[in-house]
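Reviewers of the previous submission asked for a worked example of the structure-prediction workflow described in the proposal, so we include one complete record here. The input consisted solely of the amino acid sequence. No template or homolog information was supplied to the procedure at any stage.
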Amino acid sequence: QTCVDGVFTTDEVCTGSCSPTTGCTSCTPGVNTCNGDNVVACNPDGSFGNVIEMCTAGEECNAGVCTRACTADGVDLIYVVDETYRLLSFDPRLVGVGNPFTLIGDLNCSPQLGNVPGWGGIGVTPFSMSVDREATAWVLYTSGEIFKVSTQDASCQASGYTARQNNQLLFGMGFVSDAVGSDNETLFCGGGDPDAESNNRTLSSINKMSLTNTIIGPMNTASQYSPELTGTGNAELFGFYPGVNNAFVQQIDKTTGGGIGQQYAI
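From that input alone, the workflow returned the following structure tokens.
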């Protein structure tokens, strides 16, 4: 801008940065910036300098640093499924100020088996769900079959998982990173029997590529019902153990199935 009679007037609208001495520049001299998905230095004349860092797959350059290429909306939304075949998103930021639930769509999955032995009900319905890093929901039905469901439109396809492996019939599910910062993940399963009240609970894992169910060990945590599972950013596995009089959250050992540390009452 130029000062004319005590009033600033715009000479040029900069697409990059504006220097008080040279006018429009590509960047602010002396401050790292982004050129595409590369972190670059900014030369004294405001032009792009040498590449300092090349952002890898799954990252993007933002404000001169490489960051994970995911939006806050994608991170903060929770997905839920119910026995009436509805897939919904839940936005915790809307609690108390609006309806946090948004209907994505009705599941059109086509189970080929009936309910697992010992499971009642009038028909085969969703039982548990977990969402992987590709934003695909893996939905376990009461037939023991797992389907892949889009979190964009609720469209459904068979996962290829062979139902009822190792006599693991119905279980809670949760994807967990294999290590801190890793993009590789494993689907953990907690339970096994169709009766969620049974004490015969097992922790197993499903490999996303081979779709094999591998028994890890008994879940010896005393609780009224089998847990639903989830992972953390630190590659930890946690379970929510529902109960009429004693509901709690506790970390689960991924190598044994046993509980770790404090039980956090709900």
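Residues 72-76 form the longest helix (5 residues). We consider this example representative of the routine output the project will generate in years two and three.
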